[in-house]
Amino acid sequence: MSRTDSVAVAGVGMHPWGAWGKPFIGYGSAAARAALADAGIGWRDVQLVVGGETIRNGYPGFVAGSALSQALGWHGAPVASCYAACATGAQALSTARAHILAGLADVVLVVGADTTPKGFFAPVGGERPDDPDWLRFRLLGATNPAYFGLYARRRMALRGSTEADFAAVKVKNARAGALNPNARFRAEVDAETVLNSPMVSDPLRLLQICATSDGAAAVVLTSEDYARRLNKDAVRIRAVSAPTPTYPRTVPDFPYLASDSMASNSTATAAPATRTFRESLAHAAYEAAGIGPEDVDLAEVYDLTTAMELDWYEEIGLCAPGDAEKLLHEGATALGGRVPVNTSGGLSSFGEAIPAQAIAQVCELTWQLRGDAGARQVERARVGVAVNQGLFGHGSAIVVGRK
After folding, report:
1. Mean pLDDT score of the chain, rounded to an integer?
2. Is 255 helix (H, G, I), strand (E, B) or coil?
């Protein structure tokens, strides 16, 4: 039976990831047309377009919903645009879902697309002393890779992880990405190659940090009634969560590089939450969907680095804290394993096209749950979860399931 709080994923589409430097509108239009064709829906049937704002140099400010709608041919449908750092695509999906559940629309097109500069993200110019992200670059020189390295060192200290463990994650994801025609990097690598790639931010090497990329993804969501009229074998969005962190923050997250647990202890104002921010993302979605992590058949996680992927295993409940390396080396998270993670190849194989990332994760879960994932198909997949995290307390989790 369909749930009253579910909406149907009628169609999905992507523009392959790469580094061409072309306008993001072209990528987004291609992905949108692919999703509409997949759904069997005409552009003029779309009743709302939700666009994730493009993120040049780490900051939004470029139109999305209206620009994409114009490129496809304005026909009067309303538009919406949103920004939530790396969770932008998830919030775009949440906006679309809310409109459908509220009865304001039956067919919504969600699109995320970006064109990124070469190299790592950096803040745009200007003096912004009240901006914590600007401050971490200006005062500390703490680029994203600097944070990634600190976070990886934290895992090594807490869990005993090794550089070989991090390299094994890259080997796994590259193997999956080699099977994905939309991935930017489609060559398998071995652990020796990973460990001999240039050091970027100790202990992370070049092949253990995701690149920045151009790319796009689109999803067509419909109401349950409309899906029945389409008579399609659609999967469902079962839950979308986007909670904010709680005080005291006991785990440093960028751009906030310090925790505040000591300050809280000194004033005895509050005890730390039972779950960290990242742990709360998936568990809030599980609760909303009425499932637990034991029900998950596959996951797409935001692997900005190979070390972060190991953190996610524990944070979304695939294993107990400290058991991520064991899960990895047993092959449980590889294609053919008990609960494959990043069957798409992940950011490791795609790179970041920020407003498209969460939407691309839903594309992969949809293909998997429909049995359309080809050589990387997970057998008998019924439930998938996608998680990501970005700047300024943004993060999200999306549960997708079969009807």
Report:
1. 91
2. coil
Backbone angles phi, psi at 372, to 5 degrees: -110, 20
Length of the chain: 403
Query: Which residue type occupies 96?
Result: A
Q: Which two tokens stand for residue 374?
A: 């080809």
**Nearest by Cα to 152 from 212, 208, 195:** 208
Q: Specify whether the CB–CB gap between 6 and 236 falls below 8 A.
A: yes
Q: pLDDT per residue over 209-259, tens digit each?
A: 999 999 999 999 999 999 999 887 779 999 999 888 888 777 777 777 777
d(CA 348, CA 169): 9
pTM of this prediction? 0.94
Query: Cα(332)–Cα(389) distance, rounded to whole angstroms?
Result: 23
Structure tokens at 70: 């114009």
Place of tokens 């058991």: 323
Q: Which of 92-106, 121-135, 196-210, 291-305 has the lowest mean pLDDT?
A: 121-135
Task: Judge whether 345 and 170 are in contact, CB under 8 Å.
Answer: no
Q: Which residues touch 400 (CB under 8 Å, ≥6 apart)?
A: 9, 235, 236, 237, 238, 362, 365, 366, 369, 383, 384, 385, 386
Please list, residue by residue across 383-392, b when 16 or more beta carbons sit within 10 angstroms of its beta carbon and e when fewer do: bbbbbbbbbb
145 contacts 185 by C-beta, under 8 angstroms: no
- Please say whether the dihedral angle defined by the alpha carbons of residues 218, 236, 279 and 317, taken in this order, is positive or negative: negative
97 Ramachandran zone, left/alpha/beta (phi>0; psi -120 to 50): alpha
Q: In this predicted model, what pLDDT tens digit does every residue of 183-212 receive, in sequence order?
A: 999 999 999 999 999 999 999 999 999 999
User: From the centroid of its chain, how far is CA 230?
Assistant: 28
